[in-house]
């Protein structure tokens, strides 16, 4: 969906445009990148079974909610990068690595 910017036209006291005035565009839709604390909270919410670890399926669901176009691939890459003990899950010790990986991808709040 495309959003049109809001155009603000400066006015003088008589109600007309200022001579030689410029127009300012203010975007209607602003995107802000997630910070690491927000990403960490988001990933923790996807621990469906409450065991304190994220499985590949839980990671896939988390990346899907972040708006990833390929959540299965992102889950695979997250496990490849962050799963240091190679048990197929992200535990508390590996969580910071996962968050840094997701932060580098550049997901944003829309």
Describe the overall structure.
- This protein has a domain at 54-105.
- It is globular and about 50 Å long.
- Helix content is 39%, strand content 9%.
- It has helices spanning 36-45, 56-65, 71-82, 95-105, and strands at 6-8, 24-26, 32-33, 108-109.
- With 110 residues, it is mainly α.
- The chain starts with 5 loop residues before the first strand and ends with a strand.
- It comes from Trema orientale (Charcoal tree).
- Keywords: Calcium.
- Residues 34-69 form the EF-hand domain.
Describe how the helices and strands are arranged:
Elements: E1 6-8, E2 24-26, E3 32-33, H1 36-45, H2 56-65, H3 71-82, H4 95-105, E4 108-109
Antiparallel strand pairs: 1-2, 3-4
Helix pairs in contact: 1-4, 2-3, 3-4
Short description:
The protein is mostly helical and 110 residues long. The protein has four helices and four strands, in the order E-E-E-H-H-H-H-E. It has a domain of 52 residues.
The rounded Rg comes to: 21 Å
The largest sheet is: 2 strands, antiparallel
Helix-strand pattern, N to C?
EEEHHHHE
Structural class: mainly alpha
Approximate helicity band = 25-40%
End-to-end separation in angstroms reads 12 Å
Low-confidence stretches: none
Q: Tally the beta strands.
A: 4
**Large-scale geometry:** globular
Strand content: 5-15%
pLDDT averaged over residues: 82
Strand order of the largest sheet: 1-2
The number of distinct helices, counting runs of at least 4 residues, comes to 4
Keywords:
two-stranded antiparallel sheet, 4 helices, single chain, two-stranded antiparallel ribbon, EF_hand_dom, 110 residues, calcium, 4 strands, mainly alpha
């Amino acid at each position: 969906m495309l959003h049109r910017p809001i155009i603000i036209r400066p006015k003088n006291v008589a109600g007309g445009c200022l001579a030689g005035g410029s127009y300012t565009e203010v975007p209607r839709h602003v995107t802000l990148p997630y910070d690491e604390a927000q990403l960490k909270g988001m990933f923790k919410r996807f621990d469906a079974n409450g065991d304190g670890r994220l499985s590949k399926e839980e990671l896939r669901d988390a990346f899907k909610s972040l708006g990833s176009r390929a959540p299965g691939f992102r889950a695979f890459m997250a496990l490849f990068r962050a799963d240091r003990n190679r048990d197929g899950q992200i535990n508390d010790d590996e969580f910071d690595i996962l968050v840094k990986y997701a932060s580098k991808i550049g997901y944003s709040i829309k």
